[in-house]
Amino acid sequence: MRVKDVMTTKVVSVLPRASVAEALDLMVRSQVSGLPVIDKTASLVGIVSEGDFLRRSELGTVGPKLHWLKDLFLPGHAAKAYARTHGRYVDEIMSRDVATIGEDLRLEEAVALMEQRHVKRLPVLAGERVVGIITRADFVRELTEFVRQSYDEPLTSDSEIKKRIRAELHNQQWAPAASIDIRVKDGVVNLHGVLTDERERDAIRVIAENVIGVREVHDHITWVEGYSGMTLTSPEDREKGYTV
Questions:
Q1: Which residues, at least 6 apart from 154, have a Cβ–Cβ distance to it below 8 Å?
Q2: In CATH, what class is 3-145?
Q3: Which of 123, 121, 126, 130 is CA-nearest to residue 103?
Q4: Do domains 3-145 and 158-239 have the same CATH topology?
Q5: What would the pLDDT profile of 23-67 be if each residue is shown by its tens digit?
Q6: Kind plus residue range of the DSSP H or E element containing 184
Q7: Which helix (H) or strand (E) holds 121?
Q8: Is the pTM of this model over 0.90?
Q9: How far is it, in rounded angstroms, from Cα 206 to Cα 165?
Q10: CATH topology of domain 158-239
Q11: Where exactly are the structural domains of the chain?
Q12: Three-state DSSP class for 128?
């Protein structure tokens, strides 16, 4: 899936010389947390977001003044900080180093860039032109559609469910596939067997839960400590009072 398949195409943007008040009104009215800043030539020059308004003189959230030595030797830093916390226009407070992404790139590349740059949104470019914006909310909306679709799938037979769980276990190098027994009845999966690493338990359960047609998953897998041979029943079985 590509960025253009998920992005929001109706981009709410703001001009560089719009006032801070105008930008805030636009964000609240449009229910967005960030605005691309686009000049009259349709070029992207920056982005302004909620984070740019966290430290403002009006809110009393401006940080403590720099030590006089830093003021003396780092005057540019102090001046830049002052402009951002007291600026009256968007181009005085916006972030100019904007992370962008092309419309034809894969979604995984968008996610990687968001994580790398610690941002919640990416303006989407076709050449030099802004054609959309992709945000975390777009990913959530798309994921919702996929999750909803799984409930609309036709019923899967018990044998097919078992086959799919078994196949995914074998696909995962960490999974102790040979030591897991899978029993399925009317879409209810019961997992039995042995594992030596307790961290594998939740992942094995997730594999079963993600197979279409599964209604419930019950964990009866026993954990065995590799050195002492001590055994422990699953949390579900312990809750029911079952012991090894």
A1: none
A2: alpha beta
A3: 126
A4: no
A5: 999 999 999 989 999 998 888 999 998 888 887 877 777 765 544
A6: strand 180-185
A7: strand 121-126
A8: no
A9: 10
A10: Histidine-containing Protein; Chain: A; (3.30.1340)
A11: 3-145, 158-239
A12: coil
